[in-house]
Amino acid sequence: MTLTLRDVRKSYGSAEVLHGVSLEAEYGRVVAIVGANGAGKSTLIKVLAGAEPKDSGTLELEAFPLDLKGPSDAIKQGIHTVYQELSLVGELSVAENLLMGQLPKRYGFVDWQAAYRRAGEILEQIGFAGVNVRAKTKDLPVAKQQMVEIAKALVTPPKILVLDEPSAVLAGSDLDSLFALVRQLRQAGTLVIYISHRLQEVLDIADTIVVMKDGMFVAELAPHATNEDDIIALMAGRQIDQIYPDRRTSFGEAALTINSLSRPGEFEDVNLQVCRGEVVSVFGLVGSGRSELAETIFGARRPAAGTIEVNGQPSRFKNPAQAMKAGLALMTEDRKRTGLVLGMKVAENITLATMARSFFLNLTKRRNDVTQMVSGLSIRPDNCASMEAWQLSGGNQQKAVLGKWLLVDPSILILDEPTRGVDMATRVDIYRKIDELAAAGLSVLMVSSDLTEAVSMADRVVVMREGCVVCELDAATTTEDEVLAHAIGGNQ
Amino acid sequence: MMDNSLDVTFRRGRLEIRGRDVTMVVLLAIAVVALMIVAVPLTNGVFYTGNNLTNLMRQMTTTGLLSLGMLFVILTGGIDLSVGSIVAFSALLAAGLSLRHDLPVPLCFLIGAATGAVWGAISGSLVARFKLAPFVVTLAAMTTIRGLCYVYSDVPIGPKDPGFKALGAFTFKTFKVSGSTLAFPATTLIMIGFFILGMVFLNRTSLGRSTIAIGGNRETVRLAGISVAKGIITAYVISGICAGTAGVLLASRLNNVQPTLGTAYELDAIAACVIGGANLAGGRGTIRGTVMGVLVLAIMNNLLSLRSVDTYWQSVLKGLIIILVILLQARSRQRG
């Protein structure tokens, strides 16, 4: 029993993004697909899910050729797909989302008791118990929403399950539940196609690792016969010797000081300090109040109590514009929701935060600024300025958002999940840029749920748990295990 | 590093120039040209007489101004249902100030048009500051302002000052076309002036760009340190000024203002924007598309009137054409 792809090709406009992809995958295996952004992973998934028609090539399931005319065809064939973007209806309960279109009925009316029971059973079966089936999904933390999303694909057991970056918003025990589930599915004979940027977890969980580059499969590896460095080199097409830059050693005076900052329900009594030229990371699991803290410092939310000092000056920002004037910049965690205007040109996105400095747009300056950012951050393609933002791949979108904030020329840069859903090559580019700027005196506060990043990129690690800062560690001497232990706390 | 070659691709009924979908603009241009060609046999040549073309320009003036203002509001993701009522209020006020208070005509016009800005500022503030739904706010404004029109005067006002109708009647005469003189109404030129200003504002100023960005992604704009409220209020004020000006120009042309003036004009304005490719969800729409939308509607109305098609059937046809255009747009918007 196999899934076979032969010479699958797909073009958008005049650009071919899949140049003849072939794969043979047996049921009851975990096949991981890794590759840089823009390598064609998302397109491949869409073809598999029936969301995009392939241009040529064949798709065979158990030796029968498949002609998928739409997502419903794929689902009928037992191919279920969980996309990176959540597709839940926020106003509806977990149970309604799970059982959409198949709510149990009694005398023609929805039988809510049965629906909640059934939804609870489904979640328990797959090891995701602990999600309130009656809660509106929008009220759940992102990690739980992601789990509901995955559960949705499992209401009827799939033959093939495609998971696109399922772990991007998971950490700790949630991540363990996901891995347990994947192993359980493999045991039951499901073919799991697992797309992830986290190479360590791919090495842990996959039976086969397929490396994709520029629309082609360039290697098929067995996890025990390879390592992270080899995979990164294959993905990038070159050797990347060092992911994280060396640590800086000397810092200036305090640039940002936060004293007992609170917003009830989000974070309490937070104290922290970032010096000039220092990178401080804030690590915490999803729901620990990190992003809310970042937005509050930036004036996008009002603090209930506490003070913020910028370069020794007490500051109360009423809005982001005031924070920007004081030299702050915030790169938010969700580039599509809060980082970009997807329907506008890349050039306009990059200059969005700076354009209001003059009433009439200065188009010459804009062109120069954009060119500088596009080349300085190597945003691809290099003629992207006149493209609309949605046309860029995720990693390049992220770089465009970073470019927008660098143009502001901040003295304090807050980064919320700077490499979320971003490939290794882009990560390295972003890390180098941050390091270069920090060396030149920029203060960086980096919120991250990527443990390795939080420890390796920073000079100091501030650990948050349930809205409180639990400890502050010297990044040079601490370990990932120590940081995680503090973040998880009592469960340890 | 800019690629200057004209990269034109045509795939699956979609025409792209340098990666930008221009299908709709080209289709609309074709529609306008086609309408202008079929106009000859359809009207026995009457369409291309100087008189009719002048008339067509007059008819276009009001819809044009209202559509321009409406476009800004639609770009922010809103809608302005109050423009028809503002037309009536500004027209009545200008006429009333002249007839009842003997104010000088230019001052009457100025005050009339400026009240439009006030209405816009009120609606815009309610939408922006209290985060109310634009549809509901402007629906309430529509009813309120219409009511105030009747309060002000439930009978038509016809100003006696001969200067009042001078602006609406003034034309720049050019040459004869098929037996009658083609004359450019001053009011139409004012509308064209508004469009040029609108285009500069929308494409060349940061406040103008922010209206589009707000419609595209409000939160991104807010976090970029740009005042969302300012952008939204600006859009409604522009819409109000356009409607107020349209009202004043109409009052001058008619020289007799009814409190029912402008009823349902907001619908034509919305239709013109939508035909021109504006997305009612905000963030997408162009002035050039809106111009096309105005042209299509005006030429169509003109043709149907010349053919003496029943006005009820005109309305039916208009509705069907709007649906057709939106269907075509939906097709062209589907992308990978």
Structural notes for this entry:
The complex is a heterodimer of chains A (492) and B (336). Chain A has 492 residues and is of the alpha/beta class. Chain A has 17 helices and 22 strands. In chain A, helix 13 crosses helix 14 (394-407). Chain A is globular, with a radius of gyration of 23 Å. In chain B, a hairpin with a 2-residue loop joins strand 4 and strand 5 (180-185). Chain B is globular, with a radius of gyration of 21 Å. The longest helix of chain B is centred in the last third of the chain and has 27 residues, at 228-254. In chain B, 68% of the residues lie in helices and 7% in strands. A 3-stranded antiparallel sheet of chain B has the order 1-2-3, covered by helices on one side. Chain B has a two-stranded antiparallel sheet with strand order 4-5. The chains are: A alpha/beta (492), B mainly alpha (336). At the A-B interface, helix 10 and helix 11 of A face helix 8 and helix 9 of B.
Descriptors for this entry?
heterodimer, A: alpha/beta, Rossmann fold, six-stranded mixed beta sheet, globular, B: 336 residues, mainly alpha, ABC transporter involved in vitamin B12 uptake, BtuC
Quick structural summary:
The complex is a heterodimer of chains A (492) and B (336). With 492 residues, chain A is α/β, with parallel strands linked by helices.
Topology:
The complex is a heterodimer of chains A (492) and B (336).
Chain A: E1 2-12, E2 15-26, E3 30-35, H1 41-48, E4 56-61, E5 64-65, H2 71-76, E6 79-82, H3 94-98, E7 105-106, E8 109-110, H4 112-125, H5 142-152, E9 160-164, H6 172-187, E10 191-195, H7 199-205, E11 208-213, E12 216-221, H8 228-236, E13 254-263, E14 267-275, E15 279-283, H9 290-297, E16 305-310, E17 313-315, H10 320-325, E18 328-331, H11 335-339, H12 346-350, H13 363-376, H14 394-407, E19 412-416, H15 424-439, E20 443-448, H16 451-456, E21 460-465, E22 468-474, H17 480-488
Helix pairs in contact in A: 13-14
Chain B: E1 8-11, E2 14-17, E3 20-21, H1 23-42, H2 50-75, H3 83-101, H4 105-129, H5 134-152, H6 166-169, E4 171-177, E5 180-185, H7 186-204, H8 206-216, H9 218-223, H10 228-254, H11 265-275, H12 287-306, H13 311-333
Antiparallel strand pairs in B: 1-2, 2-3, 4-5
Helix pairs in contact in B: 1-12, 2-7, 2-8, 2-10, 2-11, 2-12, 3-4, 3-5, 3-10, 4-5, 4-10, 7-8, 8-10, 11-12
